[in-house]
Amino acid sequence: MDKFDFAEQGKKIAVILFGAFLNAIAMNWFLKPANIYASGFTGLAQLVSKILAQYTPLPVSTGFLLLLFNIPVAILGWRKIGKSFTLYSFLSVLLMSLFLDFIPIRKSTQDIFLYAVFGGVITATGIGMTLKYGASTGGLDIIAMILSRMKDKPIGNYFLLFNGLIIASAGAIYGWDKALYTLVSLYTSTRVIDMIHTRYQKLTAMIITKQAEKMKKAITARLVRGITLIPVKGAFSNESREMLMTVITRYELYDLEKIIKETDPQAFTNIVQTNAVIGFFRKE
Predict the structure, then answer these.
(1) What 3-state class would DSSP assign to 274?
(2) Structural domain span for residue 31
(3) By the 8 A CB rule, do 67 and 94 touch?
(4) What is the tally of structural domains in the chain?
(5) pLDDT single digits (tens) 133-174
């Protein structure tokens, strides 16, 4: 059984906390003041909160709605995706919900375009950091992962559909100019997330190591992925080694990097994009 690494877990929690703080700053200092909507469940909570405040006598904060919407998603993710990933993702949601209610909302500037761009950049920085450390910001990430595993279709399709509904609803109720600025913010955040983490849903890892058997056992124990062993030889050293080739999802990249570092820090690893997989790819 692996020893619990307090330092590593503490670092992970600190990154998740900082990422949640950045997301709340982007929302309360940039997106909300300019009436620009975030993506995913955050945007949904933002839209519902505004509708309730404007049309009913029962105003509910965006932070509370975000937490409320994520509770059933967390239960589903716990059962379908994995306990560790879901736990850290829900922690991210909980922290962001608290920050949203405690960080004051700043007044808007006249330049809404700047608010859209910088709000998107800050949001993406928080999301990208969280993804890089093996968690997510909850909500749509978890739902899209489950749907993608059921249908084996790109996760991006579900993001596009869900965010499209939010933008269309906001545009129909509050004006299409705000919907267009929301598109600018979403595009900016998508590009920055691609730079910080990775845009590809599946990745192929090619690991050249002297500890092939030990590496194989560690990967299959924690990721439950198929592995192909290929004999290789160094061109200059003339040493014989083995290469392990495996296909993972982007959400497993953090765990794979950790396994490689723990098992064989001297291993040479090449991570490349995978556009499609033909044949069996474990979805559970």
Answers:
(1) strand
(2) 6-196
(3) yes
(4) 2
(5) 777 787 777 776 677 666 555 555 666 677 788 788 877 877
